[in-house]
Specification:
Layout: H1 2-8, H2 12-26, E1 35-37, H3 53-61, E2 67-71, E3 76-79
Antiparallel strand pairs: 1-2, 2-3
Length: 80
């Protein structure tokens, strides 16, 4: 059901909000992660408001593969 919603909607504001929620759920802290995995090739990690509809849809299609790695002085955490 979610996949069909992503494919059918063309509302850029709805898609941006979905990507922002995805990024927030994968990485809830205010600092930038040092490594990001799973974002489709050729799409740089930026604020969702800078992406157009095709890139937003590609990110949402790959949402299950997106991972953030945060390195701190003594540990490394992966948020999935």
């Amino acid at each position: 059901k979610w996949d069909s919603f992503i494919q059918e909607t063309e509302d850029i504001n709805t898609l941006r909000e979905c990507v922002q929620i995805l990024f927030n759920s994968r990485y809830g802290e205010p600092r930038l992660p040092q490594a990001i995995f799973g974002i489709p090739d050729q799409i740089p990690f930026k604020r969702p408001c800078t992406y157009g509809v095709p890139k937003l849809k590609r990110i949402l299609d790959e949402r299950h593969a997106i991972r953030f790695v945060v390195k701190r002085m003594f540990d490394e955490r992966i948020f999935t």
